[in-house]
User: Fold these one by one.
Assistant:
Number 1:
Amino acid sequence: MENKIITISREFGSGGRYIGRLVAEKLGIPFYDKELIAKVAEKSGLAEEFVEKKGEYSPSKSMFAYGFVVRNNMGESLEDYLHSIQRKIILELAEQESCVIIGRCADYILKDHPKRLNVFIYSTPEDKIQRIQEYLGGNSEVEAKRMMRDMDKKRRINYNYYTDRKWGDVRHYSLALNSDELGLDRCVDLIVNAAEAL
Amino acid sequence: MENKIITISREFGSGGRYIGRLVAEKLGIPFYDKELIAKVAEKSGLAEEFVEKKGEYSPSKSMFAYGFVVRNNMGESLEDYLHSIQRKIILELAEQESCVIIGRCADYILKDHPKRLNVFIYSTPEDKIQRIQEYLGGNSEVEAKRMMRDMDKKRRINYNYYTDRKWGDVRHYSLALNSDELGLDRCVDLIVNAAEAL
């Protein structure tokens, strides 16, 4: 039997990570978000901090910045090297076991996997700002708004750079859920139900 | 208790109408798609054929065409008049009863309704082309492809014209489902489940 893979792309502050963790618990399968970082760091020899910082948030699109990027003797930037290791680990995980993977272009990397469900979680700005203030280190509304814009922008640039897709374009996903309107627990239910289709 | 309204926007050939009808049956509430046409025709005095043709597929965006449009003594085009009647009837329906409404900018018209679930149904081109050939009058693959492009283009223009939104932008919906990956019956289940959140 093929492993079932659930990939979850999410807007920053939408509760996607929380939803993904509960989906994994309900299905009794492993959950990979920050759990991937240690694996990638070990295999790549890169520091965990670098992997965390750049795993979903690189490269800059600026042509000016291009010339300043450190490259290895293959002409590959550190970010591209990190992405290629991350990609290999995601493909290996999907071979080994059913699991839930958060972000990191996993929906694209596993696009040919026969049993994958690609989920996109989004929410209203008000809801995200509140969650960022409560749980994600936004100390004020202004700071939370800045983080919301900044993190999604970086994720979008990273995704669009490493795939031929547009981040958040619904047509690349199996289902997309508004976590504010539906509530986090309802989203978990719907994804678990949808996963039965695999 | 407030009425529950489920609006379904759909790509042509995605099976959205079929899904909507089954959702209405499962919830035991009325279903409005072509059923709206007779109501709008009666109230507006316009022919049913005109209402069917223009209710979701007008106006043309061409500035050249603008000068050739028939207008009433309010300076309103027939299409705008039709849209305003259609809008009133959708608002009245939502006041009267719980129901499922297909297309016709109902998601936007009812955006302030306290208990509404806005659904977007989409699918892969291959799946839509096959369905258009089987059920929607596409006599050949070429004809089906032309219909798929043409109908969605008209729906998009109509929606973008009468709302301040972008048709198919996931952020305006409560949930969006890929009917090819999930299957039509699974989509019905997921919508019925999500409707419990209302």
Number 2:
Amino acid sequence: MHKRYAFIGAGEGTWRVQWSRAVRGEALAPATHVSVMPVDGPPGGEPVSWRLEGHMSNLRYATRSELTVLRSTQEPLGRPDARCAAMIPIRKSAAWWELAQDERRAIFEETSHHTAIGLAYLPAISRQLYHARDLGQPFDFITWFEYARPHAGEFEELVARLRSSREWDFVDREVDIRLELAA
Amino acid sequence: MHKRYAFIGAGEGTWRVQWSRAVRGEALAPATHVSVMPVDGPPGGEPVSWRLEGHMSNLRYATRSELTVLRSTQEPLGRPDARCAAMIPIRKSAAWWELAQDERRAIFEETSHHTAIGLAYLPAISRQLYHARDLGQPFDFITWFEYARPHAGEFEELVARLRSSREWDFVDREVDIRLELAA
């Protein structure tokens, strides 16, 4: 299984950018397409607008009961009818990382209901979290979502609920890129 | 602040190897010396026996009360009288990483008393944890300890207590390298 992926903004690619905006902090350079590929794959020679990396890892906050529900409900990426995607790289503040595990967990779930909110949109919205902070990347996380077009409204609701949570007070950089399959 | 470090086993270096053994799983190649340096430092041209990398990160299990006690009690690395060191790279099993956060925390602290055991040897034994799993390294962690020679017996006791804990049932590779300052 590949664990580490590169996210590449360029003039061509698998996903066509519908729109992109900086929600908080600095934007990414403009790109018309985005591709996601294992970092140990063949290097492409094309000029790119930006390149981010992230890796899949274990979940940091989910309890056993949450994990069991998540695993039994969520769908994988790459479903044929999921032609819409969102890539939302996020950086959290130094204040967040200074918190202890129990404080982060309390904000993440007991206060902000992060997992519970995501669960409400399963299985329609597939998600994958990529960790980037410990790779020295400009974002701490790259969040990736896939869904069929009829669920686009639900996805906007999901994003709005998370952004209005207490947890998001600790987000100090966020870029939102909406994509659709190019082919 | 540097976050990512390389641990280099070679024929010369900052620390002289007193002894090295595989506690569980495969050993590392023999080396007479070990050096620790930031990965963004100047590259050395010398042949090396092995090279591991790890990065400092936030603590994954400590609660606020534990963190407060740790920060007020522990001493940094590099104390002049701390001429003894131990480097113990550790890998945990797939079963560990499949656990949920609350299960890992319960084994780590409520069952195995990992933080509480470490606290009992502060400030004599300085520690630094480097994370390596998400860098695709052969170990998940590189643990590093420094102490003055009169505390060597206490250090052996600390290691023995951790190794006999339930948490250690999930350790599937461990190498133990004891060092003293070369100069």
